[in-house]
Amino acid sequence: MQTMTKFCALVSAALFAFPALAQDYPSRPVRLVVPFAAGGPNDIIARLVGGRLSEALGQPIVVENRPGAGGNIGTDFVAKAPPDGYTLLSAGPGSLIINPLLGSVPYDTARDFAPVSLMASAPNVLVVHPSVPAKSVKELIALARARPRQLNYASGGPGSTPHLSGALFAVMAGIDIVHVPYKGTGPASADLLGGQVQMAFFGIPPLLPHIKSGKLRALAVTGMRRSPELPEVPTVHEAALPGYEVSPWYGLLAPAGTSRAIITRLNAEVARVVRSADMKEKLAVQGAEAAGGTPEEYAAVIRADTATWARVIRDAGIRGE
Asked: Would you state the pLDDT for residue 22?
C-alpha cells in the first residue's frame, strides 16, 4: 500500500511538472544552429524567425553558423547536443534528407531529431543565359531533346537542391542535360552570368536584379504557385511538366528526447511568429512563404520528401561525390 502511494505521488508530481517545465522554459539564451555559412536562405530565415521568437520566449535566440560537409557538421552537432531545448537546428532537405540518401552521415534524421515546426518554404527559379535560344520551358525541353548532353546546369554542389531540381526536371522531361557542380552558389551564379554554364535552378532573391536587367531569362518557378516576386513567370508545373514541384523548406528541430512540453511551447510560438502579417511580408521579400503546422505534420513532410528524393536519385542515377 505504501509503495502504491509513493508511486501515485511520483506520477502526480510528474504530471504537474510537465506544464511547469514549458512555463519555465527558457530560462537562458537558446542557441539556434544553422549548418551553413551566413547569408544563405537558411541563415536569413533562421535570423528572421529567431529574432521574433526571442521576443516571444523572453530570451535571446543566438543564431550560430556551423557550416561544412554540405550541412552535415552543424546538423550532427545538434543531433549530439543535450535534449534540453537550448540547442536547436534550422535545417532543410539538404542535410536532413538528401545527404543521408547520397552517402554516410554521422546521424540518423528519424532517430536523432524531434521535429518542432516548419518555418517557411521557398521555390527556386529556372533561369537561362540569354544566349540560350529558348523563351519557354517547352522550348527549352525541345532544345535539350535536339541537343542531348549539350545543355548544362549549375548548382552549388552535388546533392544540393539546385542539383536535384535539375535532376528531377531532366527525369520528368525525358532529357539528358549535364550537371556542373560548384563550391557554392556564388561562383556558380558568376559563371551563369558569364555564360560559362547555360541554366540553373537557384533561389529567387539573389537573381531578381539579373532577371530584371535581362542578364538572365526566367522561364519558370519550381513551386506549385507563382511567386509574388515574379508574378508573370509560370510554374514548371503549369508550363510543361504537370506535377513538378520543388519548394525547399526550412524547419526547426530539437535533439531527440527533448521534452514534449518544450516541443509544444516552441511549436506554438513559431506558429504565431510565422503567421503574423509582418513576418509574412518579410519572408515574401526573400521569395519565401510562411509555413507552420504541428510537429507531426513536419515529421510527415520529412518522410514524404525522403521517399520522393530517393526515387529521383535512383531514377537519375545520382551517386554521392
From this structure: 57
The rounded distance, in Å, linking the Cα atoms of 144 and 64 is: 42
Whose CA is closest to 63, among 83, 82, 91, 98?
Answer: 91
Beta strand segments in 159-203, E: 178-181, 199-203
Reduced to 3 states (helix: H, G, I; strand: E, B; else coil), residue 292 is coil
Taking residues 165-182, report their average pLDDT: 94
Count CB atoms within 10 A of the CB of residue 181: 15
Q: In this predicted structure, which of 78-82, 139-143, 161-165 has the lowest mean pLDDT?
A: 161-165
Residue 197 · residue 191 · CB < 8 Å: yes
> Are the C-beta atoms of residues 171 and 315 closer than 8 Å to each other?
yes
* Domains defined along the chain, listed by start: 25-122+248-316 (3.40.190.150), 124-239 (3.40.190.10)
- Sheet containing strand 178-181, edge to edge, reads 178-181, 152-155, 199-203, 124-128, 217-221
Predicted TM-score (pTM) of the model is 0.82
Place of cell 535581362: 214
Q: How would you classify the pairing of strands 178-181 and 289-290?
A: unpaired
Band (69; pLDDT cuts 50, 70, 90)? confident
Q: What is the dihedral of CA 98, 100, 103, 108, to 10 degrees?
A: 170
Q: pLDDT at residue 206 above 60?
A: yes
Residue 5: alpha-carbon gap to chain centroid: 50
Say what the pLDDT of residue 321 is: 59
> How does strand 199-203 pair with strand 124-128?
antiparallel
Does residue 267 have a pLDDT over 70? yes
Give the DSSP per-residue string, 118-158: EEEE--EEEEE-TTS--SSHHHHHHHHHHSTTT-EEEESST
